[in-house]
């Protein structure tokens, strides 16, 4: 009886162990210990602070063409949305050279893609 009990319990446990290994393997295949990171404006920061930080980003490495009038990321025409685009552009362009997503505490990192409609936020692994 003990022998048959061990066989039954092993036959029930083995598929669970196998599924666990498959799950872990599939996660490790899609990750190199990094996560997708976008740099966006912190919603708790005032428009004045965001405006100054965005101006700095646009003159120090961000490509702010898309947030100009009549361009793909002009709308919604808010300081927060424009700053998010500028911060992310700067961060993506320069993160491999040591740039951070700080902007005097005006920005935060997120894994959620902030792209919307025709406005696509860049991401460089």
Automatic annotation (TrEMBL):
Can you say what this protein is called?
X8 domain-containing protein
Q: Which residues cross the membrane?
A: none
**The keyword Zinc-finger is assigned to this record:** no
Instruction: Please state every residue range assigned to the domain named X8.
Output: 37-121
Query: What species is given as this protein's source?
Result: Castilleja foliolosa
This protein's record includes keyword Membrane: yes
Q: Where in the cell is it found?
A: Cell membrane
Could you give one GO CC term from the UniProt record? plasma membrane
- Keywords assigned: Cell membrane, Disulfide bond, Glycoprotein, GPI-anchor, Lipoprotein, Membrane, Signal
Per the record, membrane topology reads: Lipid-anchor; GPI-anchor
What is the annotated signal peptide range for this record?
Answer: 1-33
Pfam families tied to this protein: X8 (PF07983)
Supply the SMART domains for this chain.
X8
The record, for InterPro entries, names: X8, X8_dom_prot
